[in-house]
Every structure is written in C-alpha cells, then in structure tokens.
Amino acid sequence: MSKKISALSNLQQRLIVGVLGAGLFIGGIIISEWTFFLLFLGLTLLGTLEFYRLVGTLGIKPNKKLGMVLAAGIFIGTFLLQKELMPVEWLYLALPVFFLTFVVELYRKQPQPFTNIAFTLLGVLYIAVPFGLLHLLGYLQGVYSWEPILGLLLLIWSADTGAYIAGKNFGKHKIMERVSPGKTWEGWVGGTVLALLVGGVLALFFEDLELYQWLGVALIVSVFGVLGDLVESLLKRSLNVKDSGTLLPGHGGILDRFDSLIMVIPFIVAFLKIF
Question: d(Cα 205, Cα 184) in Å, to the nearest integer?
C-alpha cells in the first residue's frame, strides 16, 4: 500500500510540476523577448552548473566560475547580436576568454588539470551553445517571434507523448538497451508520426515557417530528440546516477527535462538557415 501511495505522490508531483512548467515556459516565450531571455538565461546557468556537479562525482574539478561566465557570455552575447545591441566584432572577445581556461588552470593546483579544462569547456559547449543558438530561431525574421520557439517545444512534447503511448502499448524492439532499456523502435515510430501530424497543424496557424519547414523540424525532433535523450542517459550511466539533479520534483534535473531540446537546436538552426 505504501508503495502505491508513494507512486501516486510521485505522479502527482510530475503532473503539478509539468503543468506549472509548461505554463511558465509558454508565458515566458510569448510575453516578450526579454521574458524569453531571462527564462533561458536561467536555464543555461542552472544547466551548466548541474553538468559540473554531475562530473564532479567522478572527482573531476571543472572551473565552475569561469565556465559559468563563459556560458552566460555566449547566451547574452548571442541575444545582444540578434537585437543589434552589440557590434559583431565583440565576438572576438570569446577567443581570449576561451583560452583563459587553460591559463587559469595553471594556478588552480587541482589534479587532472587537462581533464578539468576539457570538462569546463564541454559544459559550455553542451549547454550554453545550444541555448544561445535558440535566439537565432526567435529572430529568423529579423525581429523576435515566439512562433518557431513555441512550435519547437510543442513538437518535442508531441514526440515524447507519441513515443510513450506507442512504446507502452506496442514496444518490443529496443533501440539501445544498454543505454536506455525503455526506448523502443515502436515508440520512436509513434513519436515520429505524432510529431509530423503536429507539424502539419502548426503550419496552419504559425506562419513564420512553411509546411515543409515545419515537417523538416518535426523529423529532426523525432530523430535527434531521441539521440539527445540517449546521450544524456549515457552520461548518467557513466556517472552511475539516476537523475541529473533534483531541481524539478518528479522530473529530475534540468538536463533530464531538456536533453532533447539541447540536442535538436543546432540541427534545426542549420536546417532553417540553409533551407
């Protein structure tokens, strides 16, 4: 009986946090570019810090302070460039700051210095760069528009929902059992079908992208969203942890909830900029 109560409590937590979180994100994205900026700046910093805490369980000592400065600089700089509030030449400042990671390590007197450098920069690359690129989606037309960003989130949620329903009812063939035993090819097909259907619907209401673009984004989400989830699962398995954090009750940490988004953003930006 206690197990049932505990499971029900966890389900209630997931539902409450999920609904509140969805409302927060939809509101933050739609209200203005500044609320969007603050929302994802917070995610960038929390996600980067969460990554550093995770790898710290292996005895690795990334330079958290410098890594957070780099992460914030990339996110804020990309935003200011899209707003035309910063000269593009200022991007060159990123190069000396990047190499400061090597110089500063000389004075930290920590074991495994080059491992520390590698994971400091990996945290910035894995978290801050994708979230920074999200600004390019918001400014595809030269001015801020929430449609591509909200549409992307809706596609990720629909792919997850379709995969869960199809996997639960028909799932038999594992995609990569050694990394994530619960993911099946049947679930992936269900997620892909629902994402494509939602992409078609989005094309009717969100006019920033054409039908073929929404369908292309849906396909990218269905493929690389799953890969993003598997990559994060691989990270957790290598560290022998169940969740990346405890910030979101019933949902784990930032990386647990946004692993798919982090992975798909670079591919979607490349797709939309080229086509």
Answer: 32
- Quick: pLDDT tens for 7-43: 445 556 667 766 887 888 899 999 999 999 999 999 9
Beta bridge pairs of residue 252: 248
**Beta strand ranges found along 77-180 (DSSP E):** none
Helix 185-205 × helix 147-170 angle, to 10°: 150
Phi, psi of 248 (to 5 degrees): -110, 105
Q: What is the pTM of this model?
A: 0.89
Residues 225 and 257: their CA atoms lie apart, in Å, by 11
| Residue 258, token pair as written in the block | 């946004």
> Running DSSP on this structure, what letter comes out for residue 253?
-
Burial class (CB in 10 A: 0-12, 13-18, 19+), 177: exposed
Every domain of the chain and the residues it spans: 32-141, 146-275
Q: Buried b / exposed e across 239-266, counting CB within 10 Å, b at 16+?
A: eeeeebbebbeebbbbbbbbbbbbbbbe
